[in-house]
Amino acid sequence: MVSPRDREELGDGGVRVDGSTALIESMLVVAAVFAPLLGSLAVLVWRPAGLGAGRFVSVACGIAFGAAVAVAVVSGSRSDGLVDGGLGLSLDRATALLLLAVTSMGAVVASFARLSVDLDGRAGRFFVLFGTLVTGSALVVTPGGWLALSAGWVGASWALVGLVGHRSDLPATRRAQRQTYRALVVGDASLLLAVLLMVAKGGADPSRNLAAVVGDLASTTLLGIGVDDLVALLLVVAGASRSALVPFHRWLVITLAAPTPVSALVHAGFVSGAGLLLIRFGQIVLDSFVAVHLAFALAVVTVVIGGGAGSTRVDVKGKLAWSTVAQMGFMVLQCTVGAFSSAVFHIIGHGMYKATMFLGAGDAISAGLRSARRASPLPLPSPRVRVAVALGVATAAVGLGWWMLPPDVSDGGVALVVVFSWVTAIHGVWGWLGRGAMSGARAIVVAAFGGFAAVFSYLAGLRLVEHFVKPSFADMAAGSGVGVTTLLITLAIVAAVAGTLTLVRLPVVDKLGSGIAALLSRIAHPGVAGAGPAHGQDLSSRSVGVDIAPTFEPTDPTSREVARSKVRADVARAATIIAPAWPLTSFVAVNPLGGLEQLGFDGATAVARRQLRARTHLSLEDFRRDHEEGLTTLDDLHWAIVSQFMDVCSMPPVRINGRDVPMDEIIRLDMLHSPDHVEALEPHTALEHVEGPSGPLGVMIDTTIFHSAAQFASHGIGSFQEQWRNDATQVAGIRRHLSGDARRWLRGLSDDHAEVISAAFALTRVDPLAHLAEMRGHLCRLLGWAGYAKWRTDWAHPDEQRSAPSLIDLVAARSALEAACLLGRTIIDRSPSVMDSADQVLACRVDAVVAAGFPHADVGARNDIEQVLSHVEPFARNAVWMRAQERKIERRLLSQLDRLDPGTPVRIPEAQLVFCIDVRSEGLRRHLEATGPYDTIGFAGFFGVAMSVRRLEWDHSEPRCPVLVKPSVGAFERPIDGPGRRDAVDAMLARDRLRAGATAVHASTKYGLGAPFVMAEAAGWIAGPVAAVRTLSPLRRSATARPPTVMELNSTANGGLDLDQRVFSAEAVLKTMGLTSCFAPLIVLCGHASDNVNNPHATALDCGACAGASGQDNARTVARLLNDVEVRAGLRERAIDVPDTTHFAAALHDTVSDRVHILDAHDIPPARHDTLSRLVADLDVAGRRQSAQRARHLPGPSAAVRSRGGDWAQVRSEWGLARNNSFIIGPRSMTVGLNLDGRSFLHTYDADQDPDGKVLETIMTAPLVVAHWISSQYYFSTVDPDTFGAGDKLIHNITANTGVISGEHGDLRIGLPLQSTHIGHRRHHQPVRLLAVIQAPLERIERVIDDNAILTTLVGGSWIRIAGRSHPHERWSVRTPNGTWSAEHRPIEPTNTLETP
Amino acid sequence: MNTWTGFTTMARIEVVIDGEHVPTVRDLLLAAGAKGYTAIQGVSGFGHSGAHEGRLLFNDRNSLSLLISVVPIDRAEAIVAGIRQLLDDHHGVVLISETQVSRAGYF
Question: Is the pTM for the entire model greater than 0.80?
Fold first, then answer.
């Protein structure tokens, strides 16, 4: 490749341009390359707050992209394509195109990151490094002098290393950062050495294009070796390192610890370093036999290993990373056979494709759901027909497209295009025919047309690019590089080996295949297979004397069976500390300490601190900051201190410095000034006793089991025992720490889990009395997968198809691996390893109190203070602070409720709307009531009928009810009768199958052997622009047009309810929502859902009462039930007279946009249309007001608040149920007009209509329990995001289509993401326990609590606080845990009391 | 106990336990060799820990359930051992008695 300057030097008459044009060109090139860096510098200088840093850099990248477009246009307009940028930078058409790709993806990803990178202190650093990375990558693309190349190459490396460490507070991230640095530094050193050689031999003029220097090297030698060969070899090594070719592949997988936008940018351009170097210095590499064949060999090995390793990954990002490794091999392969124009096409196409895939990686869960809900396939052609059609179409398409092949590409390049486009076409057609998207001949005809169109489009695109970049490679010597014969023989060998391993079923081949699979798995999972501590590390240094050796003695069959049964029971008992974790396809909020509820809040949190090593309260520092911000008053704090430490506070005052100081003052000083208490880490398992709770072997065992669990959950082949034993001995890093005896011992273990546990405990000498604690210790280290196992065992539907290890599987695996690691070492020392630091903590607290309140206190006074503080448990202070916060919330809310006149005149409103109790309904209800003559009702969002639903296109049913209850009836969707309806339904199903077919084609070509290369480089040219549009102009997906349908309960013949049962259901629904009279002409049941994209936790924002799904099906079904003439007749017999003029309608509230969509509008009688029109308009007004109110709390432009759900860059489409703190049970008149700020669950209840308390019992045993779960989930996800929360969304990686892990490997994350509870480091959710406010006779509330063990536990254990009043005119009383009621509460100054529209 | 002609004597195990622990007991039964069980949700009554309401309208997990399983005598000991161990931590009752079945192969 030759620059304009060099062309002039060569004297062949480069294009002459005038001075002003040259200046403009120069400015354009400089802007295209350096604008992102200038954006970074601007961030450094101005340090903008909030989203400003992202805005600076994304605008700068946008400017760079605009300049690159102009450069490409200028280049394209010239016959030789040369553009001189000055400063030693010059471009031809190929590099102009590559620069365009780098800057375009830089702009798109920067714009994406602007919204997704959170508003913590790291955002500025992130964008400084981001801009540097884009400029570094642009410099590498742009031909220039040695200085530009070196600075760009090394600068980009350093920027990437910095970005990988974005979450450097996480140990895994720090490890990843170190490993990335080590991998990249090899390439950096190689490149710098190559540059040094070129400079030494070619001159040190930094503005001279290095490509021109290459020509000077041919005749020079160093130590007898040709310098050109040396340079070529060094360039190959540098490129291999940057492009993650084997053996430098590890870094690309490890960098999954970086935020998603970083991965997108890396895979879009940074990683293509080898291709860029080979394009720039192609001739010198092609001319060096050793270098080009080394590159060829590395490329082939990388393609094979990359493809194979990727197939062993079960996480979305891991698969993408390995796909990139293989693609980089393919790219180098293209270069080594001289197909540089094909390489340019591939670099750009693949870069855009992979960036899009990474940016959209959060959509995998939703995509899985969509795929499972597609219409069932039509009958498939036979396998023979499929094979014949696939081969025929692919061969014909490629054969007929031969004339379109680029004319000037090398023979090797042509061979690559032909072979891989043929393979890709086969996979595409095969995938299409395998989905049953169309029937018989139609499917084959479409396959033929589609196959031809795809192949021809690909070849046309390739030819177009080749034509454009042709001048850039005009001076490449033909015939150099790897010959086509070598290429074809190599490909044939690879295909033969792959075919043999796949198709031949011989023991020797199977054995070889298993070995290769284990090797690939080991390579594919660098984080799992990492070495950990040095092999043979002596663990016995802290141990005492007895050798560990197998001691398990078999006994008689009955005794063994009894022992096994006891072990199983013990595992179940140990697992009470584990909360179930639902798959993200139907997220359900739970109390993470739900299994410990019997212990009460204080008892359960104490166990969690000790066993889970978790934080269960905010720190004292957090509470003090909250106090300064007004979340508590000194009065609240005083009240909480006196309540908690009544005994201490009743002691006589202490005399200090001549003053009598009351006890509460000393405690208050302690609360306000003393340091926090840090819980000592106690060992819980055998290995922890030896190497400590954070010891490396323990971590490696955990990593092994996380890996095995994900693999098993993904494919469910064989048993989990088989999986973890194979992984432990062949894949994971722990294999290096297993002695021969340990391996034999593992191989000899029984297949029965209980016996494995017994054997492991016997081996490690676990005291029988400590078995339970040991099992609990093992489970606590596997919190995520243990939670998933618990869901699978205790909560999943019996027909659930998902595989998961069981709890006993996990205990068996972990205890056995610990025992195996300890085998042959010395027996463990079980003495406490952590010194009790309570005395030191107490001394610090005394110092703090003295310094804050009594600076001149003498020794006696200090002793007195110490004496007082010794009665105050260190951790009780956090509990007191929380109680003070709760007290303030309680006072504010009860004062607000006191202030209102609850009596509301009886009237018939124009419409009544029934909303879910969800806190997100509160604002919309308030605004709607203020807008027009409407009443609203709060009710559980499944509307009281526990059902499973089957939509028109589904071939299965899904539950739509709280997980506390099993679906008792089915509902199904059917088209309404009428002319043309059937055709409309068929058309909808056909469209649905067509989408499924397209998805199948993508999947087949994405994962098929040899197919991804052409697919990615071709699809990227479409995906890139789509990604740009999605990022820059996020639009909602248009809803799929559906024919008019109805949703109704199954008929009696299909196991549905008979008339009496339907009447009973209808009666229960109406009574529970308190609607038995005063029916409006139009009553709307309004379910809710959150329509957001690219969010693994999307279902966490849907209706919890509908099992983490939309409530629209329930609304439609129940509305139809209540409109049923026969049901209404039955209701009249039960004294519920619904007028004939009343119509129940259904609607859906989209909580992310506050839009309400009326469903089944075709079913609404004409007489109600006027009312409906007014209601729709008023709902629109109310929704806008609610959105405006929500926008105040959401970062980002308030104008975009309603479109956040459609923005794939958003990590916080809405706040969900954050800040929830109370559950109000009473008539709406009690709260109407009150601004509760979206913090209260609202359940309508009229005590007068419920004399026997059955409705109250239903509300308190179901909706209140579910609300408590939600409240607890938010509470614990906030106080300890690492243990109970899902952590940072930016590094989430969906695994096994089940949940997310953080980064490349690790445990399944439970709970809510950090972005659901925090903005950066700042808490948005206030973690307090739920306050239930009930307007009902107190004795009735007491009776309901007493009659239900779950309520006795929750209320008595202080999980839920209760306030009540028997009559509207009474003041509120607060229930103490021991069952007494206290009317004492002080009014608080009113704020935001009444809402004004 | 009378032995009826053609009938086989087996052990009948009845467990009354909170609904949320039914899956655990079910797994213990099946893992120890029981071939089946019958579960009745929402049973009510009065006993050592007071009165228990019957079925709740929207909550199947927090009312009492009765599980009944019939197993060969030699398997009963292991099953009961496990369930008793479980009941160390939870409310519940386990009853075991002899019963006679007509088709022993089902159990």
Answer: yes
